[in-house]
Amino acid sequence: MLQSLIIKNFVIVEHLELNFEDGFTVFTGETGAGKSMIIDALALLLGKRATTLKIREGSEKAEITAFFKISSPKLKELLLGWCQQFGFDFDSNEIFIRRVIEKSGKSRAWINGHNSSVNQVKEIGEWLMEIHSQNAHQKLLIPEYQRKILDDFANIKSNVEQLKQLWDKWSSCKVNLSKAREKNQSLEQLKIQANWKMSLIENLNLHENEWVEVSSKEKKLSVMAEILSTVEEALNLFQQSDGSIISKIEKLQKRISNLTNNDKFFEQISKSIEQSLIELKDATDNLSRYLGQNDLDPHAYQQASERLSEIFNTSQKIGCKPEELEGVLDQCKSELLEIETKSNLEALISNEKKLQEKYFSMAKFISEQRINSAKSFQALVSDWLKKLAMESTELYVEISKKYEASPSGLDEVNFKIKHTGIEKVLKISKIASGGELSRISLAISVVMANASKTPSLIFDEVDAGIGGNTAHIVGKLLDLLGKDQQILCVTHLPQIAAKGHSHFSISKTETNNLPTSLVRQIEDVDRVEEIARMLGSKEQLNASVIHAKALLNK
After folding, report:
1. Same domain? 337 vs 209
2. Rounded distance between C-alpha atoms, residue 93 and residue 97, angstroms
3. Residues 244-266 pLDDT 10s
4. Are 116 and 326 in contact (CB under 8 A)?
């Protein structure tokens, strides 16, 4: 149970220290006095999102501290295991939680004097206290909220969380599978391209550095062919044809030599021509010897030329330089290996199938638990509705299959109401009035509280929309709950306030020109006056006091 609460510089609370008892405790006060500040402070302490707007004007930080007394052996065992898991001390019957919100926006929390995360505070808080806020009955109109209530009652919250994790994994796997299928198409094109290139290159049967070797060989053979061609052409011109140069010069030399018989002038010219003939014949002999010593294999030259053309044409098709073909082949082999590695489509399909099977197996189990729990849940809530003066009203939990799977499972949960005399079973949102909705919400809260056995329950104006005799009944109900659990309730109804085992009055004053909430525990005369204030106007004070005393004595 909540043993004590200290609030400093929180909204309009400057400094507040409260000690609580077992049973049913009520908080009352004028509108705007800050009745809900205590609820808000506890909600913030136990993990609600913090904002700097909660810090009292002129203060640097807000601070909230609470001490919880643990009496349940089962809860002690749970908390001991939890504290040991996260390194928090727990060597007594008390849990001490503190939270500070700084003006800078920084928020810090402690559990039993050790630094903790807000999530840890929230987790431990779920074992210590349940808070039913003012808008709880409005949230009851939301199917998803109804589903969460049923899951909590069925004690399958952890299963639903596991299901959500499976859903996330399954969804992620489906996305990856879709991407892989798209990518696989691209990889297939790359694979076809790589195989085509490999086929062309491998058909060449290239050996290492063949392009360089064949190019060098072809170049040498080409040069030699050109040389020998020139030599043969020269020999042919010099002597191997009828009109050869040597033959013509010999005939010319004879004619010039004959001229010397008539004129000595031609003697020297004849000698020069004769010498030229000798040199030409020597050159011809040298060319003949060179031609005899250097032979060209025409087949080898043709082979080299054809091989060179084959390699060059293949490189042109592929789009690279001839000397790069060996590297391209190695690259294609690497690409194909990488493609085979990346193309894990079958593994993804298998994994997606496994996750799908796990999801539906868990979802089926959750559906069964919901169906089984719904029967007892609706019966218990209906019983409490009768105690809340709704004798002709029954709660019906409808569980239908969703069109598609979802993170929470395959079920659509709807709370419906059936009134005696009305055949149709309608959704709460269609049939329940404001007062009925409040009582339905209270009945559900009671059932949930009994199911969870949370030590402390807080109701923030759970009496909204009710009055008269129904208010008496709600008061008795909360009083009854207080026998087994600690009940804290903010109320504006005197019938409920009068049922409290302890009573705190909240008022508003000013401190240093700032609005400030004051909270004091009231008894006897003070309590009579407070309930009288809640009952009526000052003009009818005597009647209100008499009525207040009557309520307190019931």
Report:
1. yes
2. 14
3. 887 888 888 888 888 888 888 88
4. no
